[in-house]
Amino acid sequence: MLYLDSGDYEVKIDRLISIIIVLLRRERVQAKELAEMFDVSVRTILRDIDAINLAGIPVVTYQGVHGGISIAEGYRLDKSILSVGDMATIVSTLKGVAASAPDSRYDVLVEKLKIPLSTSQLELLELKSRQMIIDLSPWGINGQIQGRISLLRQAIENRREIEVIYVDAAGTKTMRQLEPYSLLLKGQSWYLYAWCLLRQDFRFFKLVRIKDVQLTDRVYQSREIPAAEQGYFERQWKERNSLVELELLFDKEMESVVEECFGEGAFWQDDGRIMVKAYLPENNWLYGYLLSFGSGMEVINPPHIRKILAAIAEKIHKTYSS
């Protein structure tokens, strides 16, 4: 077992893993090159090599003009049990997540996956990973959201409280002290799942509504949440958002829009129109979403949504007819 007495434990572990990856990818590397690569002294690199040896990976140092450091000839790490197709799926998914929430650790993980592959397998992996491209980022990258995700991940990993100004769906601003637990990507929008000290409960907070994030020095004790339970976040989402059952009637010319927005769970009427039943959270977003379908859609139920949309449409008419 490898014992590290360095105060900077995580940094050293990351460096050791990175050195192993470099040695697996290259036949021989100079200690000076490794020192420059990781911005440490040659002496530190040599100590790292000793630590890697103690961990059971035989690293050999060669002297002379063509000398350097390499993993002993004939030594092999266990081959991955994943096929190239499996790896291509993982790589595509990692790249998709990285597009929405950049993190250098995704790049390192991709390189780790490539370690046991031969040149021909690497070429096949590159080909297959281009056959399915996953991009979870919305159109028009929001740099503020990406920076906020980075800060929140730091808070989650270190169990640090944060202070934010949160703007709810009604436009009301409140100062919140939060204990952040999870980041959730749902419907191309990022949410923070956190314990709210103001409400004394777990809540979802949409990242675009979080303003002025401040990372505090206060460390919180983790609260028990059944996060690993199947469907937990989905149930919490429904409980925390007031869902309304909608009956929407679309003109037959809206068929492609219906399939895009609601899937294939629609019902054709005798007159050619399309009936859709959906459960959505009732808030200002919902009213705007329903109005976005224009005159090609009519809300059948519930009646109070019809009245709200009629009032909004009347105000719009007055604004543009004046």
From TrEMBL:
Q: Where is the HTH deoR-type domain?
A: 12-71
Enumerate the GO terms in the molecular function aspect: DNA-binding transcription factor activity
Arranged from A to Z, the UniProt key words for this protein are: Transcription, Transcription regulation
Q: Which PANTHER family match?
A: PROTEIN PAFC, PTHR34580
This protein is called Protein PafB/PafC
